[in-house]
Amino acid sequence: MSTIELVDDFDLVSVTECFAEAESRGKEVYDQPEQAKLREQLPRLLKAIFASSEFHAKLTPKERIAFYNDYTRGITALLLKGDCQPLFEDMQEWYEYLEELIDYDEFEADVKEEYNLVLRDIELA
């Protein structure tokens, strides 16, 4: 199975649409201040993960399934409850795993050069 076509010129349309849908449903959780910060960080976090061809190539089939399960559960929670925290936390763990899989300094330089994305701007704490 190929990777999900999520990143198109780093627009992350799917995630943006999820945010808009959650907001339009008037979800109570969506309006919490901590959610706004997570919504700001989440697209950058997903860009970093989905921009890495090595990440997908180095995952075992079992890990790929686990990754997409986490992603799907997170998107579902966002749409149904307006809560992006589960997606952010799971993707944060996968991002940390990404750092272990690849030469991180080289990856960071490539992403900055090719996509003008500074990964250190992503708050992972």
Structure description:
With 125 residues, the chain is mainly alpha-helical. It has one domain. The chain contains six helices and no strands.
Number of domains: 1
Low-confidence stretches at least 5 residues in length (pLDDT < 50)?
A: 1-7
State the distance separating the first and last CA atoms. Answer: 32 Å
Structural class: mainly alpha
Helical content stands at 55-70%
Rg calc: 14 Å
Shape descriptor reads globular
Strand content: under 5%
Major sheet summary line:
none
The oligomeric status of these chains comes to: single chain
Count of runs of 4 or more consecutive helical residues: 6
Mean pLDDT figure: 81
How many E-type strands?
Answer: 0
Order of helices and strands: HHHHHH
Features of this protein?
mainly alpha, 0% strand, 125 residues, 69% helix
SSE arrangement:
Layout: H1 13-24, H2 33-50, H3 53-58, H4 61-81, H5 85-101, H6 104-115
Helix pairs in contact: 1-4, 2-5, 4-5
Task: Kindly summarize this structure in a few lines.
By secondary structure, this protein is mainly α. The chain has six helices and no strands. α1 runs parallel beside α4 and α2 packs parallel to α5.
